[in-house]
Each structure stands twice: as C-alpha cells, then as structure tokens.
Design brief:
The protein has about 230 residues and is an alpha+beta fold. Helix content is about 25%, strand content about 25%. The chain is elongated.
Length: about 230
C-alpha cells in the first residue's frame, strides 16, 4: 500500500485498487496494516479467547439461563445453541494469527467450571479460539488518522464487536462521509472524540519524530477534499 497523489494504492495478487479513502478494519492485523501503509502502529494488542461447547444440563428452563461469571471474570458460562458454552475468559497477548485453542486453556476452562458447578463435563462437542483486539485504554479506535490523509481507523473493538456493530458501523459511516454522528447516538452519549485515533497517535508521536512532524495537533485529517475540523463532531 502506498500513496499516489491524493489517493491510496492497494495491490493484491489479483488486483490493484485505487481510492481516496482507505478504511483500516483488519482486526488483529490493524497495526500491521497501518505499517504497510507507511504509518506508525498505535499499540493495538490482540488477545486470545478460548471457548468450548459441552452438553447442557437437563434442567427445565436451561435456555433462559443468564450469562454466569465470577466477580473477577476468571470464567463464564451460558447457553449457546442448545449446549453450554464455557470459557476461561483468557486474555493472553498474541501476535495476529488464525488462532487455535490450546489444550491448557481448555483444561483451565473445565477446571474452573467444575469448581463452582455440579454439572459434569463428559464430552466437548466443539472448541475454538479467537483474537479480540484492544487499544491501551480498551476503547474502540474509530476515526481519521492525523498522520496520513484519507486513512480511517476502524479497529480495537475488543470483545464487544458483535454487540456494538450496529452503532459502530453507523458512526464510522458518518465520519467517513464527512457528516456528524447520527443524532440518536449522540443522544445516548456517544462522543466520537473519545474513540478518535488521535489519542493514541499522539503518544506514539512523542517517540517517533518523523510521525510528530506529520501530525498537526490542532486539526484532524478528514475526508479527502473536505476541510479539517478541530473536532470530529
């Protein structure tokens, strides 16, 4: 990826794409994508999460059980697709990868569940692992980079991507199109400035002189062809 005039060039094995705006929504690879585009990383950390599916208890009303977790969130379990989902709530840092479940994490999930429940786990029907990516403050990263025009961050949704997608997608779409956030989101206290990548880019700029020289702390770089604004709202 590189800049060609006022546009971004993205080359793949199958095609070469040219566009004025590049949206970085590459999940655990978001920092690597930024570096490939010539930007500094902003300190995103992918963290591993493991889950297993086991037979459900033969209890009336099982499907209506709530999510059950301990106060320190060392585990939780809940109904899922007619079975019981158990996770050790692990958060080990991981490089970006196609995550696979580790046997030790699976054993940890079963041990913690057995410590608090009288339902025996005799068979694991499915096991999987995924990466949840967090910024240092654990808030999503949504907005225009100050380091490069036309580069939009949409990353760091952590473990709440599915739940927040309806609101996150509408907020991101509005900012990409140079519009104010939807009024109903603002009415519920959503402030786009809280999620701006500027909060993270500034901390990196302090240690990367070349990045600091590219950032104007008084303005946010907006959509190509639009004037920068002092606030993203």
């Amino acid at each position: 990826m590189d800049r060609e005039g006022a546009r971004w060039r993205v080359r793949t094995r199958q095609a070469s794409l040219l566009a004025p705006i590049l949206v970085n929504a590459t999940g655990a690879w978001a920092d690597e994508t930024a570096q490939a585009a010539g930007l500094a990383p902003i300190g995103l950390t992918p963290r591993l999460r493991t889950a297993i599916l086991v037979d459900a208890p033969r209890e009336i009303g099982f499907h209506d059980w709530p999510v059950v977790k301990d106060i320190e969130e060392r585990f939780y379990f809940r109904p899922f697709g007619g079975r019981l989902l158990i996770t050790p709530a692990d958060e080990a840092p991981s490089p970006p990868c196609d995550a696979t479940p580790d046997e030790l994490d699976i054993a940890c999930a079963m041990l913690r569940f057995h410590d608090v429940a009288d339902h025996p786990v005799t068979r694991i029907h499915h096991r999987w692992a995924g990466l949840r990516t967090f910024a240092s403050d654990r808030a999503p990263v949504i907005g225009w980079s100050q380091a490069a025009p036309g580069f939009f961050w949409l990353a760091g949704l952590g473990g709440f991507g599915i739940q927040t997608t309806p609101a996150v997608s509408r907020l991101a779409a509005a900012l990409v199109r140079g519009r104010r956030p939807p009024q109903d989101l603002s009415d519920h206290g959503v402030d786009a400035e809280i999620y701006s990548p500027a909060r993270l880019e500034q901390s990196w700029a302090a240690s990367v002189p070349s990045l600091a020289a590219r950032i104007d702390g008084s303005a946010l770089v907006g959509p190509v062809g639009l004037e920068p604004t002092t606030r993203p709202l």
